[in-house]
Amino acid sequence: MKWERLLSRGRFGEKPGFIPTQAARSEFEVDYDRIIFSAPFRNLQDKTQVFPLPEQAFVHTRLTHSLEVSSVGRSLGKAAGEYLLEKYPNLKKTELSASEIGGIVAAAALTHDIGNPPFGHAGEEAISDFFKFHAKGRAWEKHLRPEQWVDLCNFEGNAQGFRMLVSKQNGLKLTYATLAAFTKYPRPSFISHRDIARRSQKKFGFFINQLSDFEQLTDFLGIEKSSEECWFRHPLAFLVEAADDICYSIIDLEDGCTMGLVSFEETVALLKPILGDKFNPKKLENRTQSQNLGALRALTIGVLIQETVEAFAQYEESMCKGHFDKALTDVIPSAKALQAISELSIRKIYRSQVVLEKEAAGFQVLEGLLEVFGQALYHKFYAPELFSGQDKSILRLLPEDFPLKGWGAEVNPYPLLRQLIDFIAGMTDKYALNLYRRVKGISFPGV
Questions:
Q1: Span 398-415, average pLDDT
Q2: Rounded mean pLDDT of the chain?
Q3: Alpha-carbon gap, residue 11 to 179, rounded angstroms
């Protein structure tokens, strides 16, 4: 793979012959701005990061997390861009700047969680489990092709994100480079063999009906295949992944300490191996715990950015050949320290009572919504003798543009189910909870 093509300014959804504008903003800054002003990004303000529906201002939502990941991503991308422009003189002929390369990573990092449903990873599992285990979900299996059924039984936020970013309805028309940097898992859900040694095959990055969209992207950027069914990662995707890894490792720990789930002393002990000589206990004196946490977090992220850029420079050629396929944070000097943070976070933060209660509630809410809407759709198109007044009322709660025509027993319902999942996955936590209460009769409008 060649950097000249990988960093092309072409834009998804534009007609052949499209000429990028050379205005005050670069094409990748345009990507960033379009994402910031989009409805799917705005909805992240009320989606769970770790702690549910937080009332405390210091606890992160998906929105604040995404902004921080984007900030770290910009730093990583700009530093990597400076390295690439120095190493490859031909890149200068494209008039690309290091800031533009940083802009690609920043924009892709901004969207990295845009496909996540309400209630975080519990929401992903809830959607998957509805089709895997629930009788009303499994009823759809006989109407679908095997690869479509695998999609439904394995909801993946990354694939949902790609679907949203290329959707004509959202109208983003991002650059191919940003879309590729976003795609950490360049494969569909249904493959005959997964190479467990390749990080990029751990999950999947697009649903089967977005295959042609992804092929369009890889053809334009010259991204090659690693097998008959999978592709290599765009090298900048490694930086997007690293930005996310850095932020959730350090900032989830900070949130856990602030909420009293992890002691300040434990937090300091976990960060000291990363900081090394930069750690000065005297600077922690005569300051509040919050101030100390903020200072330690900033110093730690700075060290991890530097280590990650150095690792990128070391493995960049191998990435372009498709040989390197690991998380950069697994090969940096602080990898063991990050692993120790991860192990403690799992034990004391991610499995804390408040988080587990949120996950349990998320399962109930999303399963309940899928049950009532899925059943109403099934009755309407596949069991009309059971289509009731209650079903009619439920379907009136769907968005006005929801496609309720053209379906029937002889029509493959996969696109219909994708639209239903789009509707539910796009909800905020509070909206999903309130709608669940209403359709289940737990609460009534105006009461």
A1: 89
A2: 90
A3: 9
Residues 366 and 335 occupy one common structural domain = no
Confidence tier at 16 by pLDDT (50, 70, 90): low
Domain count, the chain: 3
101, containing H or E segment: helix 98-110
**Higher local confidence (pLDDT), 61 or 85:** 85
The CA distance from 307 to 246, in Å, is 11
384 DSSP assignment: G
Distance CA 23, CA 26 (A): 7
Which of 336, 353, 370 terminates a domain? The answer is: 353
Let me know whether 103 and 79 are in one domain.
yes
Q: What is the pLDDT of residue 45?
A: 83
Domain at 73, CATH number: 1.10.3210.10
Q: Are residues 276 and 319 in the same domain?
A: yes
Tokens 């850029």 — which residue? Answer: 309
Encoded tokens for 65:
């997390």
Supply the CATH number for residue 127's domain. 1.10.3550.10
260 dihedral zone (left: phi>0; alpha: psi -120 to 50; beta): left
Say how far apart CA 412 and CA 418 lie, in whole Å.
12
Look at residue 221 in the predicted model and tell me its pLDDT: 95
Q: What is the pLDDT of residue 158?
A: 95
- Is the pLDDT score of 323 beyond 90? yes
Check whether residue 222 and residue 263 sit in a common domain. Answer: no
Identity of the residue numbered 369: L
Residues near 330 by beta carbon (within 8 Å), at least 6 away in sequence: none
**Residue whose pair of structure tokens reads 């095959």 in the numeric block:** 201
Nearest to 108 by CA among 263, 203, 251, 236: 236
> For position 67, what pLDDT does the model report?
94
Q: Which two tokens stand for residue 190?
A: 């249904």
* 406 and 435 share one domain: yes
**Are the C-beta atoms of 206 and 159 separated by less than 8 Å?**
yes
Closest among 350, 354, 362 to 124, alpha carbons compared: 362
Final residue in a domain of this structure, among 235, 267, 293: 235
pLDDT at 59: 58
Of the pLDDT bands very low, low, confident and very high (cuts 50, 70, 90), residue 150 is very high
238-258 per-position pLDDT tens digit:
999 999 999 989 988 998 898
Looking at residue 400, the DSSP 8-state letter turns out to be: T
User: HSE (CB half, 13 Å, CA atoms) of 50?
Assistant: 25
